[in-house]
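Why does this matter for the project? Reviewers at the last site visit asked to see concrete outputs rather than summary tables. In response, this paragraph embeds two records directly. Each consists of the residue sequence and, immediately after it, the corresponding structure tokens. Nothing has been edited or filtered.
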Amino acid sequence: MRLPRSIFAVTLAFAVAGCSNIGLRHLEAPGDGPDEFSVMPVKPLTQPKDYQFLPAPTPGGANLTDPNPKADAVVALGGSEAALNPNAAIPASDGALVTASSRYGVPSNTRQVVDTEDAEFRRKQGRLTRLRLFKVDRYSQVYRRETLDANQQNESARRAGVETPSAPPADE
């Protein structure tokens, strides 16, 4: 009589554990280590050109050595830091790009709309993803029909006459 009860108890424990909702990806951090993405190195210290004319200190303000990732990225990609000013006018060289990228309008709630649509898609596609007896990554199973095969897309582009010189053949 004890054996059927223990089997029933173990089965019930697995069923209850399988109903937890941890999302599609079952990813666990390997430990409580530091977050390497929160550390930003500062710029190297430089000597001023003239020690007689030093800038006034700005308590609570920015230093010359403080990192500014957005401005650094814009400069690295060939832009100017002045373009980061939200009140600055769009340079004439970028006018065509801004016109082309905003021709359909830019809704302000894009992220919320995409989030709700994706939640609804996952709800419809992943009806049985909450039942888990083992740690399984269900992400690729749910989004399987939404993925593109790069080689298949490349071949269809080649058959359509589109040149794809940088893409290697599928057999390599």
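We now turn to the second protein, recorded in exactly the same manner.
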Amino acid sequence: MTQTDDALRVWFRLIRLHTRSRMAVASRLRHFDLSVAQCDVLTTLTEREGMSQQELAARLYVTKGNISGLVDRLVASGLVERRTLQSDRRSHAIHLTPAGRELARSGIEAQQAFVADTFGRIAPERLAQLDGLLVELRDLVRATGDVAEQDA
């Protein structure tokens, strides 16, 4: 086997792990009638409310069209609200409602439980090694210039 073969095997393993992890988290979030994408929006807003849809799309690596549909559904469910920006009446700031804040908290707790059940069972020194490798890989991907510059 060549280095490229090994790298490809590890890359596929990482992609599959991501998919399995996302499916496991999705299963936990279904108990709250919440999709992973909806939870991503709500939890991002717990970090900083008042973002525009464009800012949310950039933070979540999705299109403005995707975020628009998500926000529409979250507004209809009473979980977020759009507030017109004084500086630009065509733009809206997205804010959590009390129900949205509570559901975000439940979603965060579900994700934290998944992390505790999985990553939390890895020895601290090995977890630190994994973190270092992931940061190294992130930097290599950024260096390709194929994605927008953001922290991940």
